[in-house]
Specification:
heterodimer; A: Rossmann fold; six-stranded mixed sheet; 20 helices; globular; B: MetI-like fold; about 75% helix; ATP-binding (chain A); nucleotide-binding (chain A); Peptide/nickel transport system ATP-binding protein (chain A); ATP binding (chain A); ATP hydrolysis activity (chain A)
Chain lengths: ~525, ~280
């Protein structure tokens, strides 16, 4: 018998939303000891499905129709008190953001103990047993720690331990690894897999990442606009997708480089960074303070027309390094040669002519555009600052909108009227308005859905070819780096540990950390099938 | 803009406050028409209760019309509130913006300077300033402005600190815009909502401060104000309650109205915070 059966589930959206139902006629089953992945882009209704099962829907999203059966119990017929008992004991949930899911003032052990006590099974020894079960080193001292002492991955393990405390039959994981680094993600995925096999728990795993699906799923359900459009075993869906939407999603997953990587035109160095150091000091006047070496030993150079990928996990210093180049961060030491001139000692005024030639694209399309300005002005602003007449700059902004494939009508609208992908295009247009020679892209696609990500990457590639741009591309996603870059530099704890052509780094990683990163790419064994070009 | 008004109007109290405020302003503007004679002139017998001798709110100990005093006093009270708020916004916003944008030792120095003003009780400082510079409308407005800018500087600095790290500000830096252009063109417009809300509340506290100064006899001797009316009626309050009560009601209503409007503005400008209140 299935652990969870969802039949014809329909959840309404409040009036005035873009569609009448958040999810419509969703039917799924989760069997004992199996992992069902629900995949979809943001807004597809996958989290709503999970929250409906847990009985955690907000009042503004009423459940309209359908049946929810957990291990023979009809969940919709249960009064709130009975639902509360079921949550935790029979079904449990892990959330996306481990940093905020734990009470910061309570010791970790007490929090797990509380989960046990609420359901009437207080037992101190069990807490440590659980912490050991999620592979946390030294359970005794971890149980005594406050959450701030733990890393993101450790907190997510604590959350999993808490979810498993009462041995639920069903575990719902809502994007549990999205906020984690790639190596940590791999550890958590393996942990979930291991626990599920050991205990025979059914897992409903929600994700947007096909790599994660390939890594962990037994069966897959693909959601689009609140409906399940495709449903089957992992192999079927991943290798022989039928529905056009699934095909489009899988086509958007970047593949790995096949050959040795083409070396681009060996021209002059556009950018050469040498001996750069940036150290952050923390602490007040009276305490010793801490030192964080954000960037050190990170020499690299960029040849004209080449794209260098700066890869690393969060905190590796890749963004700091990029921000040093555009002088958003002032390094203490070293040289930044751009076209023969050292940018580091330049004053604000002396830097200004170089601002035209080096431009940056930012990570978060929702934060990188001034919400109080019209799109046309945002794009034209740079050239106007550098002395282009206003009318001419606005005219060029109109052309740029066409280049990034936005309607010229966008000129007089405000950023909040656009989607994330469209905003990122506006950000690209703003950078291009300056006709830069060097473009620094700081995680330009990591906040975007996979299909939008593919469009933006294609746009960047096209512009790079046409404008003969040199690019420094920062990313944590090795698949993206492999697709976009000619050469790759791997950063770890502020230093570049390895660099070389993409094909070489992927095929023969020299540094153990690179090796570890490559092994952690979810679904590495799975090569997306060649589905041809979009029809 | 229409959306803004819809959100503002959803807060009933704010609409009531706005109506009161408009009425007070109308009274101030129309004072010379309604009461063409100077409020200092004798209009009838002294100590007349409200309604007697054609004086709606009675007369004071020298036979002056209390209603005329309130209407003419509204001009001064509102003017003092508005001008001193504009002046203290000028000081507070500039210092807060510089401190928040520059950071580092500039921030430290400016904030210690701000704290210096915050540690002195503001009313005492205002009394002191007015006493030193002799009571006049300029010295009163100046004193109120000097004691009320520190909270503005604090709020603006906090907004600037959080906005400075945002990516759109970094993008503006990358475009090579000047510091002033970034402060005025990019950061300030996004920090405006809390400043507007704060300003509406500051007008209210400025009116209170001015009234308190006048009550103590530190008002401009040539100008009729609400605080002066209360102050002059204070000694005879058991004989003629109307002399103190009506100007008091005027202050109460105006300050209440400004506070209601301030809350409405805060709801309308920060819709996300207001939603929970419903």
């Amino acid at each position: 018998m299935s652990i969870l059966t969802i039949e014809g589930l329909t959840v309404a959206l409040p009036a005035g939303a873009d569609r009448p139902h958040a999810i419509e006629d969703v039917s799924l089953t989760v069997e004992r000891g199996e992992i069902l992945c629900v995949v979809g882009e943001s807004g597809s209704g996958k989290s709503i499905t999970a929250n409906a099962v847990m009985g955690l829907l907000p009042k503004s999203l009423p459940l309209r129709a359908g049946r929810l059966i957990l291990d023979g119990i009809d969940l919709r017929a249960q009064p709130p008190e009975a639902m509360r008992k079921l949550r935790g004991s029979r079904m449990a949930m892990i959330f996306q953001e481990p940093m905020t899911a734990l009470n910061p003032l309570m010791r970790v052990g007490d929090q797990i103990g509380e989960a046990l006590a609420v359901h009437g099974a207080p037992d101190r020894g069990r807490v440590q047993e659980l912490l050991a079960a999620v592979n946390l080193p030294d359970p005794v001292s971890i149980a005594r720690s406050h959450p701030f002492r733990l890393s993101g991955g450790q907190r997510q393990r604590v959350m999993i331990a808490m979810a498993l405390a009462l041995e639920p039959a069903l575990l719902i994981a809502d994007e549990p690894t999205t906020a984690l680094d790639v190596t940590t993600q791999m550890q958590i995925l393996r942990l979930i897999r291991e626990i599920q096999q050991r205990r025979g728990t059914g897992v409903l795993f929600i994700t947007h990442d096909f790599g994660v699906v390939a890594e962990i799923a037994d069966r897959v359900a693909v959601m689009q606009h609140g409906r399940i459009v495709e449903h089957g075993t992992a192999r079927e869906v991943l290798d022989r997708p039928q529905h056009p939407y699934t095909r489009a999603l899988i086509r958007a997953v970047p593949g790995f480089p096949k050959g040795g990587g083409v070396a681009r035109a060996q021209g002059r160095d556009v950018l050469r960074v040498q001996g750069l150091e940036k150290t952050y000091h923390r602490g007040g006047w009276f305490s010793a303070g801490k030192m964080l070496r954000a960037v050190h030993d990170a020499d690299f150079s960029l040849t004209r027309g080449e794209t260098l990928g700066l890869v690393g996990e969060s905190g590796s210093g890749k963004s700091t390094l990029a921000r040093c180049v555009v002088r958003l961060v002032t390094p203490e030491k070293g040289e930044i040669y751009f076209d023969g001139a050292d940018l580091r000692p330049l004053s604000r005024a002396a830097m200004k002519p170089f601002r035209r030639r080096v431009q940056m694209i930012f990570q978060d399309p929702y934060a990188s555009l001034n919400p109080r300005r019209k799109v046309g002005e945002i794009i034209a602003e740079g050239p106007i600052t550098h002395g282009t007449p206003r009318a001419e700059a606005l005219e060029r902004a109109r052309d740029l909108l066409a280049i990034v494939r936005l309607d010229p009508g966008a000129m007089d609208r405000y950023p909040h009227e656009f989607s994330g992908g469209q905003r990122q295009r506006i950000g690209i247009a703003r950078a291009l308005a300056m006709k830069p020679e060097l473009l620094i892209a700081d995680e330009p696609v990591s906040a975007l859905d996979v299909s939008v990500q593919a469009e933006v990457l294609a746009l960047l590639a096209e512009i790079r070819e046409r404008e003969k741009l040199t690019m420094l591309f920062i990313t944590h996603d090795l698949r993206v780096a492999a697709q976009v870059c000619d050469r790759i530099a791997v950063m770890q704890r502020g230093a570049i540990v390895e660099q070389g052509p993409v094909g070489q780094v992927f095929a023969n990683p020299a540094h153990p950390y690179t090796q570890q990163l490559l092994d952690s790419i979810p679904g590495r064994a799975w090569t997306p099938p060649d589905l041809g070009e979009a029809a | 803009m229409t959306e803004f008004w819809i959100r503002f109007a959803r807060n009933r109290g704010a609409v009531v406050g706005l109506v009161i405020l408009v009425l007070v302003a109308a009274m101030a503007v129309l004072a010379p028409v309604l009461f063409p004679r100077s409020p200092w002139d004798m209009a009838g017998a002294p100590f007349m209760p409200p309604g007697e001798m054609g004086m709606l709110l009675g007369s004071d100990s020298l036979g002056r019309d209390v209603a005329a005093g309130i209407a003419h006093g509204a001009r001064i009270s509102l003017m003092v509130g508005a001008v001193s708020t504009v002046a203290s916004l000028g000081i507070g916003v500039s210092l807060g913006a510089i401190a928040g944008y520059a950071g580092g030792w500039v921030d430290d120095a400016l904030m210690r300077f701000t704290e210096f003003f915050q540690t002195i009780p503001s009313f005492i400082l205002a009394v002191l300033l007015v006493a030193i510079f002799s009571p006049s409308i300029t010295s009163i407005v100046g004193a109120i402005a000097i004691v009320s800018w520190p909270p503005v500087a604090r709020v603006v600095r906090a907004e600037f600190l959080s906005l400075r790290g945002r990516e759109f500000v970094q993008a503006a830096e990358c475009l090579g815009k000047s510091r002033l252009a970034i402060i005025i063109g990019d950061i300030l417009p996004n920090a405006l909502s809390p400043i507007v809300v704060l300003a509406s509340l500051m007008v209210a506290s400025a009116i209170l401060l001015e009234s308190a100064l006048s009550f103590l006899g530190l008002g401009d001797p040539n100008l009729m104000t609400w605080g002066f009316l209360i102050g002059s009626g204070r000694s005879v309050i058991r004989l003629a309650w109307w002399m103190s009560v009506f100007p008091g009601v005027a202050i109460f209503l105006t300050v209440l109205a400004l506070n209601l409007v301030g809350e409405g503005l805060s709801d309308a400008l920060n819709p996300r915070l207001a939603r929970g209140r419903a």
